[in-house]
Amino acid sequence: MGEDIVSRTGIDFLGDSDDAVVASSDAPALDSELSNGERSELIDALLNRRSVLPSGPYAQVAQSVLEANHRAAEAELRAAMLRAQARELNWLPTLGPTVSLNSLGTVVAGLIVEQTLFDGGAKKAEREFARADVEVAAVALAQDTNDRVYQGLDLYLTVQASEARAAVNQGGLARMERFEYIMTERVNAGINDRADLQLVQQKLTQMRSDILEDREAAASARAELAAMSATPLDGVRGIETISDPAGIAQPLDVMKVDAEGTRGLAEARALQAGYTPNVTASGDVTNSGSFGLGVAIPNGLGFGRGANIEALQAMGQAAELAVAEQREDSAREVASIEGQITSLRRQQSNISTIVAQANDNYTLFEEQLRAGQRTVPEVVGVFRTKLDAERDAVSLRYDLARLELKLAQIYGTLVDGEDI
Prior knowledge:
The protein is an alpha+beta fold. The chain is 66% helix and 8% strand.
């Protein structure tokens, strides 16, 4: 019997724990078949989710960070599944030792078998609670997996955006240094005031500082990404357009609160059954003449019994309200992100025009500088406006990509259901 228990639960009570761990890790984390043989609609919905990430840099980052995932949430799910398997057998008789001292001072040991005949639905509620606990853990695992992928992609976008902004300033650095040289010569020749030179030098210093700041931000994000990745990602470049993150999927936060509400209702039913009489039959297997029936009310008949029962009944309404509230909160968050995405896309459609106008202004001012119609500080100011517009265009592109991924994280569509 001991070997059968080990093979069924995957836990080795005799010490060969390594084999059990290997068997456990090879098994799929998500399984929609519950301990009672029924399929869970919630877990099926998780398994049927499809990732919106196309094959490319996003997929490479996602795969790398998932391969290095320690998956603590998966261990919690497996523990919940084992608890549910154990609860499915709670209707069977319990067997336990008994030790007593008789009137002659002799210790008498026996083995008591106890079977619950009626418990007001307590054990059934315990089984329902355990199954709902599995669903809660399954949603938590899906959230944990999607959150990890989003964190990796967020760091990846930080690296790419910081490097792109630094490249913009780096591309204009030589021109700004040329302006500084011209102003230095003009000040030495007494043509311009030193204040004009300081203005140009201040803008040049700010450019160099921005480059260093962007490169430091890229290096910091790259180090974080490397720490949570299984493979090097230094050669991965670019961003992609993802498909609709929502589709027919439901936000994971709503699914989790719904599962928690179901679990809370099962707990309330189990507690409420404690206020009804329980009937048990017990007997001593070592003494064939010892048999009896027992009737008890586990929670007693205290003065607060009525209020306690009403409180348990109110838990059902509280669970429904919690789901409705979470659905509203998620809808508001989604609407906010979608509004920001719409705004960024509008800005992105305009930024190209702004960059083109900034380039034209700079070209015109540079020609007027050669003709003696403009001063160097004026041209430098227009040149910085041009660089700032190009940096804004870079930031808009990556901010939009980050919001699209954030929306996919809310709906849990960054990872295929089978890969959770």
